[in-house]
Design brief:
- The structure holds two protein chains of two kinds.
- Chain A is α+β, with helices and mostly antiparallel strands.
- Chain A is 35% helix and 15% strand.
- In chain A, the strands form two sheets. In chain A, strands 2-1-5-3-4 form a five-stranded mixed beta sheet. A two-stranded antiparallel ribbon of chain A has the order 6-7.
- The longest helix of chain A is centred in the C-terminal third of the chain and has 17 residues, at 221-237.
- The mean pLDDT of chain A is 95.
- Chain B is mostly helical.
- Chain B has one domain (3-115): Fumarate reductase/succinate dehydrogenase, transmembrane subunit (3 helical TM bundles of succinate and fumarate reductases).
- In chain B, helix 3 packs antiparallel against helix 4.
- The N and C termini of chain B lie far apart (48 Å).
- Classes of the chains: A alpha+beta, B mainly alpha.
- At the A-B interface, helix 9 and helix 10 of A face helix 1 and helix 3 of B.
- Bound molecules: iron/sulfur cluster (SF4) (2 copies) and FE2/S2 (inorganic) cluster.
- Chain B: InterPro entries: SQR/QFR_C/D, Succ_DH_cytb556, SuccDH_FuR_B_TM-su.
Chain lengths: 243, 116
């Protein structure tokens, strides 16, 4: 463990949506992540501090919080890279209800994932022969480009369209839908397109690209949603889905 | 509540979206006025001439340069959005958005230099 060189004042959100920031002084160490700081406060200063994490290596997507006003995955965010004027302010993710302290309620986020038909619907059974999928086919490439989402919610918290229209499905759910409509093995394409074209669907997106800017996985939901808008229009013109 | 500073908005593309929205509102307000002036021209030369004298005032000319900026920035910004949504994806969006703002500023500046 590296030695503490100095201290840092960190403001953490405490309480529910009507809570407030509380400031703590914590030792600043080398290679410290924002999640390390939050954990230090809970272990040394206040065991009632609530927050969420699991993998600590950027895989599970459970640790995203608002760090100095921007949504970030805290387990892979180095403190020294995000300190502003010697200050660190950590709040729960925006655009979601607050459970307590730094834990946001991600239920609406995942409910929209379901509403966008974010589940793979198999077109074959286990008795069928395995369908060969060529990795370099255009549709497979499009699916692959969008597939590495870890459901962290950073894009959703950065999207002002979600902020203004709580019914908007949001970048992550739509990005997932794009991955699935490009999966030739999936059998739910038409009804998924209908779901993402309905009210609150892809046509609400203003192409701000804030989602792309903040995705820690460097995904591009704006591109995925633009693709969905085109497919949705084509399906409408063909009469496959209704307005 | 938290994130009162909303620093996630401090990036070029968010500001490009803001400028696109504001320039759209500005044009929506300006265009009816523009047609009103055209209407004056149809109605009678006297009233139009009075109005045109007004437009020679420096303050009005500055405002017109501002309108040129709004028009160009909204037009080019709209083309960028159309391209994003209808063409295969291409990178360099921040660069393009910055260039659009610069071109629009230049257009307004050239207009000002010519009229002043
Ligand atoms: S591009 Fe669409 S989904 Fe992404 S932040 Fe903007 S409005 Fe939200
Ligand atoms: S698209 Fe990116 S930012 Fe959004 S939930 Fe998935 S990994 Fe997180
Ligand atoms: S704790 Fe799993 S992504 Fe951060």
């Amino acid at each position: 463990m590296s030695e503490a060189v100095s201290t840092l004042k960190v403001s953490l959100w405490r309480g529910g949506s009507d809570g407030r920031f509380k400031t703590y002084t914590v030792p600043l160490k080398a290679n410290q992540t924002v999640l390390d700081i939050v954990t230090w406060v809970q272990r040394h200063l206040d065991p009632t501090l609530s927050y969420r994490f699991a993998c600590r290596v950027g895989m599970c997507g459970s640790c995203a919080m608002t760090v100095n006003g921007r949504p970030r995955w805290t387990c892979r965010t180095h403190v020294t890279k995000v300190i502003q004027n010697g200050m660190l302010e950590v709040a729960p993710l925006a655009n979601m209800p607050v459970i307590k302290d730094l834990a946001a309620d991600m239920r609406p986020f995942f409910e929209k994932w379901v509403a966008a038909h974010g589940t793979f619907a198999a077109s074959k059974t286990r008795t069928d022969a395995i369908e060969p999928i060529k990795p370099d086919e255009p549709a497979r490439r499009a699916a692959d480009e969008a597939i590495e989402c870890i459901n962290c919610g950073a894009c959703y918290a950065a999207c002002d369209t979600v902020r203004w229209n709580p019914d908007y499905l949001g970048p992550a759910a739509l990005n997932r839908a794009w991955s699935l409509v490009n999966d030739v093995r999936d059998s739910d394409r038409t009804s998924r397109l209908a779901a993402i074209s309905a009210e609150g669907g892809c046509h609400n997106c203003h192409s701000h690209q804030s989602c792309q800017e903040h995705c820690p996985q460097s995904l591009n939901p704006t591109r995925s949603i633009a693709g969905l808008k085109r497919l949705s229009m084509q399906a409408f013109v063909r009469g496959e889905i209704n307005a | 509540m938290s994130a009162s500073r909303r620093t996630y908005r401090r990036n070029i593309l968010w500001n490009a979206a803001l400028i696109h929205r504001l320039s759209g509102i500005g044009l929506a307000i300006f265009l009816p006025l523009h047609f009103l002036v055209l209407g004056l021209a149809i109605e009678g030369a006297g009233r139009l001439n009075g109005f045109l004298r007004l437009t020679q005032m420096p303050a009005v000319e500055f405002a017109e340069a501002g309108l040129i900026f709004l028009l160009v920035v909204h037009f080019l910004g709209g083309l960028r959005l159309l391209a994003i949504e209808n063409l295969p994806w291409f990178g360099g969006q921040k660069w393009i958005a910055t260039a659009i703002a610069a071109v629009s500023g230049c257009a307004a500046f050239v207009f000002l230099v010519r009229v002043l």
